[in-house]
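Something for you to look into today, if you have time. Just paste the record in under my message, thanks.
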Amino acid sequence: MKRSYITYFFFIIAMSAFITLRIYAGRVFASESVSDKDGSVAASDTIPVSKPEDEIVAQLPEEDTADEMEPANIPVITEEEEPMWRGDIEPKAEFHGLLPRIVCWGDSLTVSLDGKSAYPDIIRSLSGCEVINYGVESDNTSMIAMREGGLRVNVKATVLPADTTLIPVFLRTENNGHVYFLNQGDGGVNPCEINGIEGELQKLNGSYYFKRHTKGERIAVEEGTRLKTFGMRDAREGDILVIFAGTNDLPDTASVHNIINLERQMLESAGCDKYIIVGLTYAGGIPEINEVNAAMEKAFGDHFVDIRKYMLNYGLADAGITPTSKDAEDIRKGEIPSSLRSDYVHGNKMYHKLLGEQIYRRMVVLGYIPAMKEDLSKEEL
C-alpha cells in the first residue's frame, strides 16, 4: 500500500514538470515566430501573435513606414525660373500695335461650360482681347490638328450638285487615315469649304455629308481636294495660338514627339509665330509625365507653360487654399491637388483661374499683349 502512494506521488511530480516544460516551450516558440516575421521585434515585446497585420502596422511610428512611400514626383522650380510664374511681370519684349485675337485649341480641358470659368474666359477677362475657344471633348492631338488645319483632310473625288442637296462625302487624312470630325462638338469645323464652295459638314450614322449653303454651278471635285475648316479659313495674321493638347494621347517619351510635330504643323498652318503650348497634367495616365513635359519644353522654350509644375509648387498657396491630407498625398504622387480638380483629370474653377492667369502672364512676358493687370493675386474669381 505504501509503495502505491509513493509511486502515485512521483507520477504527479513528473506530470507537473512535463506540463511546465510544454508551456515554456510554447512561449519561446511564439516569441521566435514574431521575431522571424519582423526583425525589429524582440522576444520580450508584448505584441500578441494573433494580432492582425494591419493593426500592427498602424501602431508603428511614421518613420517605420516612410521608406515604403513612393518618392515625390514633383518637378522643381529653380530660383531663376520663379519670376516666370510669380511676382512682378518683366516683359522680355515690348508690346506694339492693337490688341491681338487669341485662339485656343484643345480638348475637354479647354471647353467652357458657362462662358466665364474656363481658362480662355479668364484670359479674355484679364487681357481684354477677343478670345475664341475651339475646345472639343475627347479629342486627341491628331483630331485637334485636323480641325485647325495642321493635319490635312482630303475629299475623295465627288460631284457637288448645283442645288443645296445633302450629299455623302468621303474624307481621309493625307496619309489615308480616318477623320474624326463632329464626334463631341464642332470646334471650328463649320462652315467649311470644298473646292471653293462653302457649306455645312454633318455626321449621320457614322458617315459624313456635305450641304452647300447656296445654289450655284455643278462642280466636279478632284481626288485629294482639301477640305478647309472654318478654323483654317478664319486664321488671321497676328493671332496668338494657345494649344493645350495631348492628354487623350497618353504619351510616353517615345510618342511625345508625335504631339510636338503635330503642334508645329498647327503653327505652320496658321502662319503663327506667337503662341503658347500648355504642358500635360495627368500624371495618373502618363507615368513619364516629367520627361514628356521636359521634351515639350525643350522643343518650345519660353512658349511652353508647364502648368503642372506651377500647380504642384504654388497652386494651393496662390489660390489661398489650406492643403488637405488628400492634397498632400496627391502632391507626393505628382498629381494636381484634389482641391484644384473636379475629377481625376479635369480642373475646377480655381484651377482654370490659375491656368488662365499663367497663360496671360506668359503672353505679357513674351510681349504678345500689354500688362492690363498689375497684381494677379488680388483678382477675384
